[in-house]
Each structure stands twice: as structure tokens, then as C-alpha cells.
Specification:
Oligomer: single chain
Order of helices and strands: HEHHHEHEEHEEEHEHEHHE
Distance between the termini: 23 Å
Strand order of the largest sheet: 1-2-3-8-9-10
Largest sheet: 6 strands, parallel
Number of strands: 10
Radius of gyration: 17 Å
Strand content: 5-15%
Shape: globular
Structural class: alpha/beta
Helix content: 25-40%
């Protein structure tokens, strides 16, 4: 992605569940003309996948506790609704960015039963590295099956027409993974936008003191176009 061009573009963030009275992807599609009139270049959707039920926080759960990366939350709509939103956005010259949460899944994600070795464990129990994230379980990136599956997931969404990814707590995920992901996705579309949620210096220090992955902004720019620039 041309970073100089990206610097002058406007990103409009949408939490589908609360964006309209209906709370659906179809309702967002109906709102595209208004969004376009605001001067928006990129529509950024917070996670739109099914939410786990085990250890759920709040009534509806956090959209960052995902149970299946390759499905759409049924209350938000269908995969066809998502394709329609992408198509209609592109007709208006708007790119579509989606939130990707690859550090962890919900504690009842479909992968836990199918691939238990894909996960991080502590004292023999499914665990997460960050204490108050009690509704999720961390993936184990030492397992290359995990990396291959996640990259294939990204490639599939780019083939649907997704133009960019905002990557949740990306500095906690190995930088080698992101570099390969960018390389593989670029084979399909070299102009995909990569936005990393970077993290504060105090959080980086905490992670490194506990021997966890924790990358600085300077390191993350090796793979990403845009960061939060917390450090």
C-alpha cells in the first residue's frame, strides 16, 4: 500500500451490532451513501464473527472472543450479506477493512476440540497470557498448523474483496507470522492495508519481563502500514 496515499485517507469505524437499530450488515450497507458523503475512504468493521459463550463477558459477549474465524455472527447477517456490503462499498469507492483477532479465540472455539495442540496451556489447562482477558484462550504460534490456517483465512477474505486488516494486539503475535501473512496476501492483492493495534511501552515491558512476545512500533513497521503509535 502506498503509505503517502494512505496518510490522507479517512477510516470510518463501525461496530455493526450498535451502528443501526437493526444491528446488521445489511443495515450498514443501506447506510453507505451517508457514510460516503462524510468523505470516508475506508470502512473498518469491528469483529463480525460468532462470539463464544463460555466465560462470556456481559450479556452479549466481547466480539474479541471469537469462536469461528470463517463465519459471520448470525445476528449480524450471513456471508452473502458481507459480500454484498463489500460489493456496494466498492461501487462507491470505499475500501473495506475487517478486524482480525489472531492472538486468541473464545474458550469454546471450534478449534479447541478439533486441534487442542493449537493452544497455549498453563499447568495443563487452557490458558491466556494476559490475566484479565478471562473470556479467551491464547493460540500457540509454535504450531505451524496454526500459522498456515490463519494465513489461509486471510487469503480467503482477500479473495472475497476485503481490502485491509486491522490486527488486534498484533505485537503479541510473532512478527515472523505477520511478515509471512503479508507476503502471502500480497500475492492476491499487493495493496491490502495492514493496520496494527500497537501497545504502550509499559505493556511491552510487562510482556518481555514475563518472556512473552511484545514488539515495539519500530519493529511492527517491518510488516504493517499503520500503527497506533503508542510508543
Amino acid at each position: 500500500m502506498d503509505k503517502l496515499q494512505l496518510r490522507n485517507q479517512t477510516i470510518y469505524q463501525v461496530f455493526v451490532r450498535n451502528h443501526t437499530q437493526e444491528g446488521t450488515l445489511f443495515a450498514v450497507t443501506k447506510d453507505l451513501d451517508r457514510i460516503k458523503d462524510l468523505g470516508v475512504d475506508i470502512l473498518y468493521l469491528l469483529p463480525i464473527h460468532p462470539i463464544g459463550e463460555i466465560a462470556r463477558k456481559g450479556t452479549y459477549g466481547s466480539p474479541y472472543a471469537i469462536s469461528d474465524y470463517r463465519k459471520i455472527h448470525p445476528e449480524l447477517g450471513s456471508m452473502d450479506d458481507f459480500k454484498k456490503l463489500i460489493h456496494e462499498s466498492h461501487k462507491r469507492g470505499i475500501k473495506v477493512m475487517m478486524d482480525i483477532v489472531f492472538n486468541h479465540t473464545s474458550r469454546d472455539a471450534i478449534y479447541i476440540q478439533e486441534h487442542p495442540h493449537w493452544y497455549y496451556y498453563r499447568d495443563g489447562k487452557l490458558a491466556n497470557r494476559i490475566g484479565d482477558w478471562s473470556d479467551v484462550a491464547d493460540l500457540n504460534f509454535n504450531e505451524f498448523e496454526v500459522r498456515d490456517f490463519l494465513i489461509e483465512t486471510l487469503v480467503n477474505y482477500v479473495k472475497l474483496g476485503v481490502d485491509g486488516f486491522r490486527c488486534d494486539v498484533a505485537p503479541i503475535v510473532p512478527l515472523s507470522f505477520w511478515k509471512k501473512a503479508v507476503s502471502e496476501v500480497s500475492k492476491i492483492n499487493p495493496d491490502v492495508i495492514w493496520l496494527s493495534e500497537s501497545i504502550e511501552p509499559s505493556f511491552i515491558k510487562y510482556l518481555r519481563q514475563n518472556h512473552y512476545e511484545g514488539r515495539s512500533d519500530a519493529e511492527m513497521y517491518q510488516a504493517f502500514d499503520v500503527l497506533y503509535d503508542y510508543d
